[in-house]
Amino acid sequence: MMKTAAVSPSEHGKFVLLGAAHVDRRAKADGPFHPAASNPGVLADSPGGSIFNAAVALQALGCSVAFLGARGGDDDGRRIAAEIEARGLRDLSTTFLDRKTPTYTAVIDDHGELVAGIADMALYDLVGPKLLKRRNVRDAIAAAEALIIDANLPAETIAAAVEAAGDRPVTAIGVSPAKVRRLFAVLPQLSGLFLSRAEAAALVEVTAATNLGLIAELLAELGTRRAVISDGALEAAILDAGELVFQRPPVVRPRDVTGAGDTLAAVASAAHLGGTSFLESARRGIAAASLRVSAPIFPPEDLPAEIERLHEHLTDPTTRR
Fold first, then answer.
1. Backbone angles phi, psi at 240, to 5 degrees
2. Distance (Å, whole) CA 266 – CA 56
3. Where are the alpha helices (DSSP H) in 18-173?
4. H or E segment to which residue 172 belongs
């Protein structure tokens, strides 16, 4: 097994996060899922969103997090504001009092895998570049060591955030096949890109059935320097400055896959900022994502220790599929 010394993310961990925080609603089937039919199951909801999920993981690593998003003046918006405050995150978000807060609804089968998801998130399209010019936002970015953004933001806001970051590393989360191309113009400027297979395929304009290695190579041709393309329980592709390897995640029993990619991005970004190589950072992110999907409660009491425990049992990366 490949072993390297861990670098504590909390040694270098002042982040500004820009993107989604809303209520995730999940409908999980009790038994085998039958499409186009009524399925017995359980409904649940909790605070979520790509950047909120990333913030939860970063905070559990001991990182400092400032958060910029948008919400409405409804009960969901108040719930998210209260959750951000309760977690001690610095909240730079804007509230549109006459709008409803975005929401994500997932249908999950009895194995914890996503069957379908509906994202009602039009409000995020109102997060324009002007919000980045607010004094408190400019001060937060100036004090930060790194930024994480997600593709829920409009393309012009993404570009403005990358420009505002200056020489600070910026990583991005693809969010969905429908939105991932909002990242297209800034791909060469990103220090890390975190995508699902479907998102990566949409970004390079091929089908998700295309060989994963070819998808990664096409991504590199677009100027992407470092990326992780996850594929559920199958091997993930890790692209690092032209080098491509594949990493199988730990074998776990998934409870709910929601937030796995966001957790991967956060943990990998923190480790890389702390001085760990991108490959080893990605491997720790993959371990953390496996914890996210399998743990009854996330984050666990000692997230860094749990990540290291799973990381030690990862198989070595391979250069061929």
1. -140, 100
2. 9
3. 50-60, 75-86, 135-143, 155-165
4. strand 170-173
What gap in Å lies between CA 141 and CA 227, rounded to an integer?
23
Q: Tokens standing for 248? A: 């199988």
The encoded tokens of residue 250 equal 């730990």
Task: Give the containing element (helix H, strand E) for 33.
Answer: none
The answer to the question of residue 179 being in a domain is yes
Spell out the residues 6+ positions from residue 277 whose beta carbon is closer than 8 angstroms to its own. Answer: 4, 240
Residue type, 188: P
Q: Is the pLDDT of residue 132 over 50?
A: yes
CB-CB contact of 265 with 192 (8 Å): yes
- Smallest CA-to-CA distance from 201 within 170, 224, 172, 176 is with 176
Is residue 307 within 8 Å of 284, Cβ to Cβ? yes
Q: Structure pTM?
A: 0.92
| Separation CA 78–CA 74 (nearest Å) | 6
Write out the residue range of the structural domain in which residue 249 sits.
11-311
Tens of pLDDT along 211-234? Answer: 999 999 999 999 999 999 999 999
Report if residue 320 sits inside a domain: no
Q: What CATH number does residue 303 fall under? A: 3.40.1190.20
What's the confidence (pLDDT) of residue 256? 83
CB of 285 closer than 8 Å to CB of 263: yes
Q: What's the DSSP call for residue 279?
A: H
Structure tokens at 125: 């399209």
Q: Is residue 194 part of a domain?
A: yes
**Torsion-angle region of 241 (φ positive above 0: left; ψ -120 to 50: alpha; else: beta):** left
**The pLDDT value given to residue 1:** 41
Tell me the one-letter amino acid at 66. A
